[in-house]
Amino acid sequence: MEALNHEEIARYSRHLILDEVGIEGQTKLKNSSVLCIGTGGLGSPLLMYLAAAGVGRIGIVDFDVVDASNLQRQIIHGTASIGKRKVISAKERIQDINPHVQVDIFEEPFTSENALRIAAPYDVVVDGTDNFPTRYLVNDTCVLLGKPNVYGSIFKFEGQATVFNYQEGPNYRDLYPEPPPPGLVPSCAEGGVIGVLPGIIGTIQATETLKVLLGVGTTLSGRLLLFDALTMKFRELKLRKDPQAPKIEKLIDYEQFCGIPKQADGHSLENTPVANADGFERISVTDAKQRLDSGWKPFVLDVRNDREAGIVRFPWADALIPHTEVGNRLAEIPKDREILVHCKLGGRSSQACNVLAQAGYRCFNLEGGIVGWAQQVDPTMPTY
Amino acid sequence: MSVRISIPTALRGFAEGQAAVEVDGNTAGEALHALTSRFPGLSKHLRTEDGKLRSFVNVYLNEDDIRHLEREATPLKSGDALTIVPAIAGGR
Predict the structure, then answer these.
(1) Of these residues, A36, A343, A353, A363, which one is catalytic?
(2) Is the ipTM of this complex over 0.85?
(3) d(Cα A11, Cα A52) in Å, to the nearest integer?
(4) pTM of the entire structure?
(5) Closest-approach residue (CA) in chain B for A326
(6) Which of B60, B62, B88 would best serve as a mutation to test chain A binding (most A beta carbons within 10 A)?
(7) pLDDT tens, A26-37?
(8) DSSP 8-state class, residue A257
(9) Which domains does chain B have, with CATH numbers?
């Protein structure tokens, strides 16, 4: 193992005087490696703390660029990095925090084709992703390679964290054997997330990663930690291996497993509208614009919530009914007109279209939602 | 038997925004049925069309997953707490 030099001894002095770390533990950290999938909300604090703590080699996987809407929570990136590739922005920040860290960047989507190759050299994998297919992929990769998977996920004010596949412990499929169908569970882009929440959950993931690398303490393996920021409560639930779980033998097509049509660019699939839903039509923002301009007069139904409508709305929308309430408020929607349904990105509106179609309405889902409209039709509108 | 069911943020929109409700039931299954008869919109999020609990929504009796107890037949005592914990995937 490579020993610590004088500069490192000075830098890590608060660790070196801890019984649980010491020179021996710090040297272990220096010679250890962690792969973080995603440099977003969870990845931001995680990468910064692992770098500061002196983990010798950190791999980061991300193919996104920094967007203004990331900065409310993705604190590894700054205003000056808007438009920059996230892996580059994160690498620069890590090297500013600690130049002793080797940073490997993978600017590509994490897929069944590259996952085993990318993850193989690392001691621990940390899941900072934002969609179900990638979470199952990260899990199965860790099971096949025999690596601990430090897990965290967030929604609105709630978070979950645990350590999967550690010392024969349970993995993600023991917690959730199957994914939800697309569209049923809203994403952070649609449901929102309080900016500090990934800070808390990501920092818990960093803590667990360091404990696994050092071999100290009691990790969250076998326990699911739940956090609610609104009530400021932590709870833990027992997590056990499912004796009936099928054995994971190889990586599969995770988009298909999650019922999501594959996207060629590998972009986040979370907001993909309900797949294979019958009974309603889909219309792109540009087609909708064209048809509206040539006299189409559908009843326009906004299925977002009041707050979102307060940010930006179509002045020509006829009604605002949150998608969860559409089924109970059909009386407010005329049966004798075509219904154009929209939300922010197209996910919730496709659920609403399902409900409407079952109730006998003829409806059209605005694919891409009001954000797609703002990007492709009317750039004077704000996006959020 | 009165028990408290905690409803996660992701499903509160289907339960008039409530974080927890008190329901009656002698088993976990009965308590969940009491919940979905009060809030029918929750039903499709908790159960499949043939009435089985969905595999991405876990139900805990106190700290234990009812899948490792007697599933929906798990008996309840007064004052027990049921917690619904759905899969969430956010991270960015």
Answers:
(1) A343
(2) yes
(3) 9
(4) 0.84
(5) B41
(6) B88
(7) 999 999 999 999
(8) H
(9) 2-86 (3.10.20.30)
